[in-house]
Amino acid sequence: MWRIVLLALSLTACAEKAAPVYQEQGYVFGTLVEISIAGAADADAKLAVAAVLQEFQRLHTMLHAWQPSELSELNAALARGESAAVSNELVNIVQDAAQFSKQSHGMFNPAIGGLIGLWGFHADDFKPVQPDQNELAKLVAANPQMSDLTIDHGRIESKNPAVQLDLGGYAKGYALDRAAKILRERGIKNALINIGGNIMALGYNGKRNWRVGIQHPRKAGALASLELHDGEAIGTSGDYQRYFMLGAIRYCHLINPRTGYPMQAVQAVTILTTGKNAGTLSDAASKPVFMSGVKGWRNAAKLMNLESAMLIDEQGRVHITDELAARLEFLDKNNTVLAE
What we know:
Elements: H1 2-9, E1 21-28, E2 31-38, H2 42-63, H3 70-79, E3 84-85, H4 88-103, H5 113-118, H6 133-142, E4 149-152, E5 155-158, H7 171-185, E6 191-195, E7 198-202, E8 210-215, E9 222-228, E10 233-238, E11 243-246, E12 249-252, E13 266-273, H8 278-284, H9 286-291, H10 293-303, E14 308-313, E15 318-320, H11 322-325, E16 329-330, E17 337-339
Parallel strand pairs: 15-17
Antiparallel strand pairs: 1-2, 2-6, 3-5, 4-5, 6-7, 7-10, 8-9, 9-16, 10-13, 11-12, 13-14, 14-15
């Protein structure tokens, strides 16, 4: 059922089509993927999109947390207390994710795959059931961290057998950067890449910037829109994408690594990034902002060097930095917006 919700509520591009746009969709990383290319011959655009979608599928196969993959093989070795030989690419990904984890003071923590699985989110279809409290407490006490990993000559091992890697909060952003590289290498200068709410813009849509919408976390349609400049990316983490309800309580897939429980009191976080690896940053850096809640989100944004960030709390109030507020156009003028 969550797939239908995700397809309906994913961040969507609302670009003004000022130039001929070639558009293609796919389904990868458990979400809707959409690639739009402006100002290129259809034949060239089609080949470029095919190359990007092929790359997305390769990454999905490599980084899947619960189906057979290079990552799941590594996790099996870590659980046995053994080291595993991995590709240079996976080494680089793990090292980069570990750096984000350190920068965020552990609030971005891909080592808690065991907790995510315990809550039932390592499945395409999950059940609304709370995990066994003893197992949950045991995993939280084990305190799996990215710093538990050691990498030596292409082999990864962990001093903590509770470490299980889940790169779901990193992979989409990494895929954005890979897609941008592929498109540029193929001579595509103007494109919009949307992976289930993580969006990167290349160039322009005709003579205009690409305009995108930010999904409302509780209503169909967009909360706000903004223009993305060349090389910019936005990422949204929300409690409306993968979740289940028990009574009146919503349990989402975004697990607080310190408590072991799904983060509550936050509906969504959106960040705007630019520069080198803007796509990866748009994915990884939104997680510590989300996990830090209303009291800590601003400090978390500073830790991740984010100037443009927005948090929507459980009452639907919008907390936003001045830098992002200057870029957004809110579609519902009745929103309570608290610029900070």
